[in-house]
Fold this protein.
Amino acid sequence: MNLKYKNQIKIILLLIFSTSALYFLLARLGFIFPLTDVAEVLCLNGCESPQTIHSAISGNDLLNYSQSVEELIGENIDKSKTSILIEKSKHRMTLYYNQKPIKSYPVVFGSSPEGDKFKEGDRRTPEGIHRIRDLYPHPSWSKFIWLDYPNAASWRKHFQAKTEGKISWIDSIGGEVGIHGVPSGSDEMVDNRNNWTWGCPSLKNQDVDELYKVVQVGTLVEIIP
């Protein structure tokens, strides 16, 4: 193998490595979607129109808030049958079991609660269909129920917002959105509907502790205006 051919191989390998490194850096910073989501984001297999999963309860009241989930369902709760509906305009989060509303909780959001989330730092709560990605205790807010924002639908809305001029082309999509509690002794922030987070739905600590016990990775979370 002559020296010229070796140099050409080195250059090709360097370009491949540099391109891969740049891609993974941009993906980590939220400027491009992961390779695993390409088909969904680009609708290569077709994209379904957004649809409502839950039938919302009427009125603005909290359903069965004075009762525990165990009292309403029983102790042997099948986590695969639970799901969540969050109504931003009503500051209400409702736990569903077998598609039936069981119990509602008061909830607050980011300091810019109206409108869908398109980018990092807009302090909005993302709307649409999401899934629980992980659950773990949180040192400041009791529990953290991590949602799969951004998912493929989030990326499509993010790029559409850029093409429509709603956000800048240099804006990243953001992440780390989840359902969590409040700082210890701060339940009044939820009672007073103080939208204090960076975009995460926030419950009273006793409520997020209860919810934490009856959901799992993969649980569906629907968020509507």
Strands lie at 82-87, 92-97, 100-106, 128-138, 142-147, 178-180, 220-224. The chain has a mean pLDDT of 86.
